[in-house]
Inverse folding.
């Protein structure tokens, strides 16, 4: 039986998230954001351990959540780094040496489903790397780059992209441990927005599995209202 370690990344500063609590500790229907993915991954039969990567400012708060809700399988709380990939690498170095596969998930995605986890693991066993994603449904246009990603006088449309082959990528992302370690050791200094990009740079294939449009990422405080609705629907 394969040993699968999960890394939940919750070390970001959440600059676009405003509120009295840090994003992982903010509440969705009275439960902390981080609780949802912790509970789902901990309850999955194929996951053997969870390494939780946090920033130093919330470490004690997250530890209290784990204790209060009796979340099993958490093998360690690791402090993150400056960039997301630095945080993931810290988590990778903390996984059990027996691990065959590593599942990486954003703590800001509270509604990952058990079936999605199972599907991603299955395809990672077959291909070595598997990531969740959903087809893009909106019209996507390439716009002249603005350094601040804000609307400026230079924001002119360059072209409309064909969305038929475009997918919005989510987590979980599951990899053979040796594959993701090699990718981080070779390309970890490269700025990327997800872990699969490093595996792609190493020349390995990455399989996409169908995610879920409800597998949202909490980015701003306004996202909590949508999350509250999703949580109520899932509880029915």
């Amino acid at each position: 039986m394969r040993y699968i370690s999960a890394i939940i990344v919750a070390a970001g500063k959440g600059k676009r998230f405003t509120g009295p609590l840090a994003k992982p500790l903010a509440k969705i229907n009275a439960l902390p954001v981080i609780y949802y993915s912790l509970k789902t991954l901990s309850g999955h039969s194929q996951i053997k351990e969870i390494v939780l990567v946090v920033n130093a400012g919330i470490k004690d708060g997250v530890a209290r959540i784990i204790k209060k809700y009796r979340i099993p399988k958490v093998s360690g709380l690791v402090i993150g780094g400056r960039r997301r990939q630095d945080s993931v690498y810290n988590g990778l170095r903390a996984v059990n040496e027996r691990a065959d596969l590593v599942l990486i998930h954003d703590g800001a995605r509270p509604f990952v489903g058990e079936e999605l986890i199972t599907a991603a693991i299955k395809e990672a066993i077959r291909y070595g790397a598997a990531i969740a994603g959903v087809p893009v449904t909106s019209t996507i246009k390439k716009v002249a780059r603005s350094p601040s990603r804000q609307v400026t006088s230079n924001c002119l449309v360059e072209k409309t992209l064909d969305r038929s082959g475009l997918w919005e990528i989510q987590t979980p992302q599951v990899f053979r441990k040796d594959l993701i370690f090699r990718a981080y050791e070779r390309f970890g200094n490269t700025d990327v927005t997800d872990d699969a990009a490093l595996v792609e740079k190493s020349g390995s294939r990455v399989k996409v599995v169908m995610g879920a449009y409800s597998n949202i990422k909490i980015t701003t405080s306004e996202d909590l209202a949508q999350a509250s609705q999703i949580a109520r629907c899932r509880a029915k």
